[in-house]
Amino acid sequence: MAAKNDICIPVTDENTKHAQGKGSEQGKVSTDEDFDYSQRGQWLRAAVLGATDGLVSVASLMMGIGAVKQDVRAMILTGFAGLVAGACSMAIGEFVSVYSQRDVELAQMKRDNKLEKEALPNPVLAAVASAIAFMLGAILPLLAAAFIGDHKVRLGVVVATVSLALVVFGWIGAVLGRTAVVKSCFRILIGGWMAMALTFALTKYIGSTAL
């Protein structure tokens, strides 16, 4: 019988490290590709929407008051009132919306005779998260205007602070959702500028003509 020639390949530490590194890299790529980033959509939307809404709403209110009054106290009080009212509105709106979604899902589970425990949306958690996100966004223009006495400088600082915060919010949302960063930042920045400009212009027009 003819003897079989076995070819032996020596196993070295370098070969082992190379194989392990390659396997680890493939595992990482597979994990990144398999992860469904749309799962982040619901909480990401609520967080970004709440923070952006608080930032733009309160800043626009302050710009509107700043268009007709130079008193820093009036601007701060208006912004603070907008912070409280907006946070309450966001919390109530999110609570009602998520509770309605929960009722729909429960009704569907009953129709499908599928009554085991599943992950259902939490309306209380959604309401608290939306209110906190709104307040975090709203407090930025208040802090920017609180320590500046000159009226024109104060308005400029508010606009600059809001613009920077909008870019940061857009960047965070794009990174977490794995979307285009430039488009996200540009879109949110233009929207914020339009809101502040329209509020400032219309309030100034009404204050100088109609009243």
Task: Give an account of the 3D structure.
It catalyses: Fe(2+)(in) = Fe(2+)(out). Keywords: Ion transport, Iron, Iron transport, Membrane, Transmembrane, Transmembrane helix, Transport, Vacuole. Belongs to the CCC1 family. With 211 residues, the chain is an all-alpha fold. It has one domain (42-210). The protein is built from 6 helices and no strands. It has helices at residues 13-34, 41-68, 72-111, 123-146, 151-177, 181-210. The protein is elongated. The model is unreliable at 1-9, 22-33 and 35-39 (pLDDT under 50).
Helical stretch tally: 6
- As for the number of domains, it is 1
SS elements, strand count: 0
Distance between the termini: 112 Å
For the largest beta-sheet, the strand count, sense and barrel status come to: none
Strand content: under 5%
- In the predicted model, the low-confidence regions spanning at least 5 consecutive residues are 1-9, 22-33, 35-39
InterPro entries: Ccc1_fam (IPR008217)
Catalytic activity: Fe(2+)(in) = Fe(2+)(out)
Subcellular location: Vacuole membrane
Function: Vacuolar Fe(2+) uptake transporter.
